Amino acid sequence: MEYYSNQINRLVEELSGLPGIGSKSAQRLAFHILNMPKENVEKLSSAIINARSNVRYCKECFTLTDEEICPICKNTNRNHKVIMVVENTRDLAAYEKTQKFEGVYHVLHGAISPMLGIGPSDIRLKELMQRLQQEVDEVIIATNSSLEGETTAMYISKLIKPTGIKVTRIASGVPVGGDLEYIDEVTLLRALEGRTEL
Ligand code: ZN
Asked: How far is the CA of 64 from the centre of ligand 1 (A)?
């Protein structure tokens, strides 16, 4: 990397800090950016800065949004009495892409992992329980089928059971350790339709 000037090195370094970007891709991206028209580079950098400063958590479901309440929670045509619990906003997007789920979501932002020292209070569980004080017919737990996802699902179902609200778990057509966002829509739909009561 000593072949490049300091500023190119810095750009490559910053880019290679992003997930999934190795040093080769970072160099490729850096030179691509350097060859872009100046106004396109400005658009890109302002998109990054604006997203970072304006995106926050939805007050209802805690997904990432640039409004106080996200468009899904705002939508009165959706069934607000069915809440699907997912680990992150990317999982929510995966289910949204199927266009078949008419309920709303709750984004935990993580999963319980004793190994990593992530406990129930480190994810948005308390907020979920608060939401359940309103009228809710069903909570669908759609955490990943990894060890952490299963641990979280079990923990949540135990927590909700005493309230009498129906708790279901998506079917495990989803491979173990499978990340929801990489699973195709048909598999996701099947998992949703084949959900079982806990
Ligand atoms: Zn929301």
From this structure: 8
Q: Which pLDDT tens digit goes with each residue over 94-129?
A: 889 888 899 999 999 999 998 889 999 999 999 999
Instruction: Give the side-chain half-sphere CA count within 13 A for 61.
Output: 28
At residue 63, φ and ψ (nearest 5 deg) are: -75, 170
Question: Residue 55 Cα, ligand 1 centroid: separation in angstroms?
Answer: 13
Q: What percent of the chain has pLDDT over 70?
A: 93
User: CATH classification of 77-193 is 3.40.1360.10, yes or no?
Assistant: yes
Task: Give the pTM.
Answer: 0.77
Are the C-beta atoms of 137 and 83 separated by less than 8 Å? no
Please tell me the distance between residue 132's alpha carbon and the centre of ligand 1 in angstroms. 15
Enumerate residues 6+ apart whose C-beta is below 8 A from 27: 12
Distance 52 CA to ligand 1 centre (A): 18
pLDDT in tens, 139-161: 999 998 888 999 999 999 999 99
Cα(160)–Cα(117) distance, integer angstroms: 23
- Looking at residue 179, what is its pLDDT? 62
| Residue ranges of domains in the chain | 77-193
